[in-house]
What we know:
There is one protein chain. This protein is an alpha/beta fold. The chain has a single domain, classed as Zn-dependent exopeptidases (Aminopeptidase). Helices cover 36% and strands 13% of the residues. A six-stranded mixed sheet has the order 2-1-3-8-6-7, sandwiched between helices. It is globular, with a radius of gyration of 18 Å.
Amino acid sequence: MTLTRHQTSTKSGGEPPHSKHFAPVGVRASRAERMECVRFTGAFGFTASEQVRKEQDASPARGFLLLTCEHGGNRIPPPYAPLFRGASELLATHRGWDPGALTLARTLARRLNRPLLAVTWSRLFVEANRSPTNPRIWSRFTRSLPRDERQHILERWWRPHRQAVEDAVAAALAQGHRVVHVAVHSFTPELDGEVRNADVTFLYDSRRPREAELCRHWAALLNSRNPALRLRYNYPYRGAADGLTTWLRRRHPATRYLGVELEINQALVGTRGWRRFQQQIAGSLRELLINHAQEG
């Protein structure tokens, strides 16, 4: 059975995670995570748009890979910390963030030398992977805030990440590239008593044949590296549900933009095979992009 995403709210990258204006509630992001967000997030330092301009030798057929991570942390801006008093344990769970997602996304960015745009504010603050009109963009902690306050949160903490992603996609398309966008997420092994029987899943819009073909090809390459992995499609969520990839599909043709949400089981995070698993994901994605370029 395909489940809808659980009702929580999330994060958005407005300022560098190490800024004096913010402090974490719950689990702290590691120093590497904080620095990585500064390096790869929109208006701060290295940007995806700049990466596009640097790739003068990249042929349009090869395509442009953009990596994002919408649920990379569980931090709360200090002005809103009182709203989350006593919620540290909840913030540390899958409802507050996607454990392992940012680590994997950073690995992919380093190994493939690709830009990464990431968010480390908790999804319980404002949901970076929801449209601004979706009621589920707010959690029980924030939905009762005055409308003007919620609009302020959207402008300062939700919109910067989305704008950075939109700008990166637009820059790549303007140079004639085909964009392959991989949004890295993770899912809890069990939700409401139901055990998720998958290790890696690929979410795409079934109405877009190129996305379906890309995901099947990627799954085949990953399976050749580790046949023991349980691979599924559009599980445990629907690939066409409200999210960043769906938002971008509505703005760009299927021939120019391919959006995939890569979901990994959180049970894999931190295990003995965790590092090797990340290498397998990176290797399969690298081969996928090579083959995708050759197919044109």
